[in-house]
Design a protein that fits this description.
Strand content: 15-25%
Distance between the termini: 13 Å
Radius of gyration: 27 Å
Structural class: alpha/beta
Helix content: 25-40%
Order of helices and strands: EEHHHEHEHEHEH
Number of strands: 6
Largest sheet: 6 strands, mixed
Shape: elongated
Strand order of the largest sheet: 2-1-3-6-4-5
């Protein structure tokens, strides 16, 4: 099992913690991680773009001039794509971009992403994280003490003061242990996670 240091909110080392290899020490499956990221981004797309083809624009029912003898190029309709006001070639239409991943594939992708953070030595475990008031400066101080800038902060329990304190930091995102996803884990340089969140993640994915 991998051993990681445990820090307090001041950035001082207060102990170590063993991570479950079934979650934080798996073989990294980059293919499933990529699929999970593509799936999440695709599922967020609205797919509402739309344009009219030549069959849908109004007008252009008759041939604008006779086929031969005018000196013009032959034309069959004023609503062909090369005309002003004509239809769009291969016009985009509303569609659903989402695709489904199996539950086991999603779990392997998340475990692979967590393992990649451990391998890169970019996981920081906090013994606890709580504030008695909403203060962005306090959240920034915690991250500075860990020498972390762009971070995903994972909590074991919902803590409004922590969530709201981190909200105004542009390169910081908070998430509950049961809402983590591959995209956020790989997007942010570091993973800051509380001890209770580690235990709960191991319960869910082990």
């Amino acid at each position: 099992m991998a051993n990681v240091k445990v820090y307090n909110m001041e950035g001082s080392e207060v102990g170590t913690m063993e991570l479950n290899d079934a979650v934080f020490g798996v073989e990294v499956n980059e293919h499933l991680m990529h699929m999970a990221v593509v799936s999440q981004l695709a599922n967020k797309r609205q797919g509402t773009q739309s344009a009219k083809t030549r069959a849908e624009v109004s007008g252009g029912g008759r041939k604008p001039w006779k086929q031969k003898g005018t000196g013009h190029a032959r034309q069959g309709s004023t609503r062909a794509p090369q005309w002003k006001g004509g239809g769009v070639v291969f016009a985009p239409k509303p569609r659903d971009y989402s695709f489904k991943m199996n539950r086991k594939e999603k779990a392997i992708a998340v475990k692979s992403a967590l393992t990649s953070r451990v391998v890169a030595d970019k996981i920081f475990v906090l013994d606890s994280l709580s504030f008695d008031e909403i203060k962005t400066k306090k959240m920034a101080a915690v991250l500075n003490s860990l020498k972390v800038n762009k971070a995903l902060v994972v909590l074991g329990d919902k803590n409004e003061n922590v969530i709201l304190s981190a909200r105004n930091l542009p390169e910081v995102r908070t998430a509950l242990y049961n809402a983590i996803n591959v995209y956020d884990i790989v997007k942010y340089d570091s993973l800051v996670i509380t001890k209770d969140a580690v235990a709960k993640i191991e319960e869910v994915y082990a």
